[in-house]
Specification:
By secondary structure, the chain is mainly alpha-helical. The protein has 2 domains: 44 residues, Homeodomain-like (Arc Repressor Mutant, subunit A); 144 residues, Tetracycline Repressor, domain 2 (Orthogonal Bundle). Helices cover 68% and strands 0% of the residues. It starts with a helix and ends in a 14-residue tail after the last helix.
Length: 197
């Protein structure tokens, strides 16, 4: 493990131990077993370390999603469902989620949403294109449609922003499924996986 990753993992561990909000760069250095000066060689601040941690976590999450859908035996709809389930079943420690949603970390949270959008949209665009080739979808702008799909999920279903009830979430997911089935000219029920978990 290189020093950058060691520092990131140490910050992650402090968050899991519920010491992340109050920890200092010195605490991170101590946890990593390195000098404080070494931290500043790689990162300018604790916030920058957390930013790197968010990037690390979501990159791992997206890479796992890519692995899940890598098999070409699945059609586009099957890949979308697998991707969706893999993404939402990925285990992110709740302490990291709590820290990310604190008001003072709003800028980092926004960056994390942008990171997800930038990493996940091309994957979904490829699936939409596959669906077009398989005659499952009709869509002239798969890249833009994928961005709208991802951004809606990232924002609307972020429990740290909205406090929807389970019933409200289901209604919104059903509406979204309907919109995308119509928008992609997909068979009715194709996006049922969005609300039938």
């Amino acid at each position: 493990m290189d020093k950058r990753e060691l520092i990131i993992k140490s910050m992650e561990q402090l968050l899991i131990e519920d010491k992340g909000a109050s920890c200092s760069v010195s605490d991170i250095a101590k946890k990593a077993g390195i000098g404080k000066g070494s931290i500043y060689y790689y990162y300018k601040s604790k916030e920058e370390i957390f930013d790197a941690l968010v990037d690390y976590i979501y990159s791992k999450r997206i890479n796992q999603c890519k692995e899940v859908i890598a098999n070409d035996k699945f059609n586009a709809l099957e890949k979308l469902e697998l991707l969706f389930k893999s993404y939402y079943n990925y285990d992110v420690d709740s302490s990291i989620d709590v820290y990310l949603h604190q008001q003072q970390n709003a800028a980092i949270h926004q960056k994390s949403l942008a990171k997800i959008l930038n990493l996940l949209s091309p994957i979904i665009a490829d699936i939409f294109t596959k669906g077009i080739n398989e005659k499952l979808f009709i869509c002239e702008k798969p890249e833009e449609t994928a961005e709208i799909f991802v951004s809606t999920f990232c924002f609307l279903f972020d429990h740290g922003i909205f406090g929807w009830t389970a019933e409200q979430i289901e209604k919104k997911a059903k509406a979204l499924a309907y919109l995308f089935e119509k928008g992609l000219n997909a068979p009715e029920g194709s996006f049922k996986f969005l609300y039938s978990q």
